[in-house]
Amino acid sequence: MKEVKTKTAVITGSEALIRSLISEGVDTLFGYPGGAIMPVFDSMYDYKDKMKHILVRHEQGAIHAAQGYARVSKKVGVALVTSGPGATNAITGITDAMMDSTPLVVISGQVNSTLLGTDAFQEADVIGVSQPVTKWAYQIRRPEDIAWAVSRAFYIASSGRPGPVILDIAKDAQMLSCEYQYDKTTSLRSYRPAPTPRLEQIEAAAELINQAKKPFALVGQGVILGNAEKELIAFLEKAQIPFGWTILGLSAVPSDHPLNRGMLGMHGNVGPNIKTNECDVLIAIGMRFDDRVTGDLNTYAKQAKVIHFDIDRAEIDKNVKTTVSVLGDVKRTLPLVTERLNENSHTDWVDEFKEYEKKEYDCIIKNELYSETGPIKMGEVVNKVSEATENKAICVTDVGQNQMMGTRYFKFTESRSVVTSGGLGTMGFALPAGIGAKYGAPERTVCIFVGDGGLQMTIQELGTIMEYDIPVKIILLNNNYLGMVRQWQELFYKERYSETFMQNPDFIKIADAYGIEARKVVNREDLDNAIAEMFEYEGAYLLEVEVETKGMVYPMVPAGGSVSNIILGNGYSL
Amino acid sequence: MQEKTFYTVTVFSENTVGVLNQITTIFTRRQLNIESLSVSPSAISGIHKFTITAFADTEDAMRKLVKQIDKRVDVLKAYYNTDEDLVYQEIALYKIETAKLVATSNVEELLRKHNARILDVSDHSTVLQKTGHYEETQALFDELSESIGVLQFIRSGRVAITKSRVERLSDLLARRELADLQDILIDETK
Known about the structure:
Number of strands of chain A: 20
Shape of chain B: elongated
Shape of chain A: globular
Number of strands of chain B: 9
Largest interface: A-B, 28 and 27 residues
CATH class of the largest domain in chain A: Alpha Beta
Mean pLDDT of chain B: 90
Radius of gyration of chain B: 21 Å
Largest sheet of chain A: 6 strands, parallel
Structural class of chain A: alpha/beta
Structural class of chain B: alpha+beta
Largest sheet of chain B: 5 strands, antiparallel
Oligomer: heterodimer
Number of domains of chain A: 3
Helix content of chain B: 25-40%
Number of helices of chain B: 6
């Protein structure tokens, strides 16, 4: 990393903060002002030409927007909130970023250092609250600590396995003056972000793969975070290894790659789930064996030798015992393994997936995407929207059925095309994350899939879209239910639909009040036309589609079940 | 129920505010109850050393715990050990009634047997000090409680050093530096 040195100057802490952010290349940030952060907002006023601040409508929205921004742009997302409720409102988003390894720097105001611990107005123990859900949390009480803390924060957030960092800055530290000089952090004694690859691990992994008859790779977000998409493709292609991807690994490789066998996990595809329990060598790459991927660990890939590539030592042997672990940045480790691989083909093995793909198409996909009668289906909408963008758009989803349909049926041609709350499963994520994604990749089309429940959790961000004229395409899949919970009630709670029906407002009128173009579609014959209209329209657009009220996401590995026992639903069986 | 093993976790960290909180929440989240805790500077300048004891069902639980602690940015390295790897000690203080102590015929024998010291004596009470393993400090407590009674009692957290020659961390830091220069990975589990 290059050392960037700036000259010493005497300025206020808040100006030091702004100049530090600019030194880190921050040109966009999301936030909400309040008493304890006012000096920073005041200083920002002088730097409007260098840094664009997006005023969200709730602090949770600021964090999700910063997440969406970071996920598509490879940059660190930055959010600025006030003390007390401002900071606690940010905690959900910060936890989400921690679970999904998203690099964020969150700056919260704090009461005057002299008032700390006195239960002052809008005081909250932000460090205490946030430590378990951040990669690093630090309280700044003196202006002279601002520059180095910001420098550390960016280094920590973006290096190794990325994650959120919070800087809690006392108001007097913002107001007092200090000597300012900015030096980039390039290392810390106590922190080893990326273990150096180890030859014996590399060789052992290559040997196992060379001997494998039925290798199967699991592609996770680590590949995207490590910018190792090309290295991954070279690795997979050399030995012709079929792969499945996790929800956050989606788009690491173009969807139509011949080795792509689909999504893993609870609502993933049938083939990759079944074949996980039939492969002889399972190669996990930058993924963490989440329970939504593995189902019951006692019946998960027991027949296979497991190779685990990861940058985070704590992930090795956490959930699944490995035969060989390959620690390090996949950008480095994958090519080292690839050069030791024999060229190979596993045609028969790859063909074994295809019978399941056909079965899944016949029993589920065909009906979900191409029904000609009955109410509009969620998958059908996702598929049509994806096709209308030639599979080039960014797919942002909320959580629940819309998320599973979005991730199952949207197709991708380039990396960093999925923004979804994978680990924490935060409803209300999509709308603000979509705003951030549009700022992170302004040249790309951003499609936000959201349900009627999730939209109402952060619906106030329509105000942000209105104010800044952010041209996102919002596709509301309205089934008038909290659909995923309703699905579980149907399957596991004897159809006792406890509190999952929702009386909804007129979403078109709401959009209208915000000055956002909107249209509601009830009939299938209007859908194509409405989608075309949405994309032809230059600005933000809300497309509400009334979808079947009791739609189901299939296939499904019931929670805690074996991936081998994936169910097809609708009376079909494997 | 499975028999639990007693582990000593040693954590080397930067001397920053809030590290203790970060470490203890990692125990809490895994339902591991901290039995004792002591914090002090280590032999390496600027680096603090936490000695934490806890029971765990499996070594795997300990291994995962230590990896999670290690992952914290302010932590340089965390280790876990069982008793046979360590030289360890605790200190205990006992306050007893002076009159009752004097009334016993075997004060000298008691002190010699337990290798205890008298730290303070007043008309009403006497403070004894004993260092040793848990069982040893407990044995004196039991004997005193049964005979003359104990007014106040306190036992410190465990302090422990490994049987290896130098601070393991200095060795690790030196190897890391070498590895960085040569760009090879070292075995950090040792």
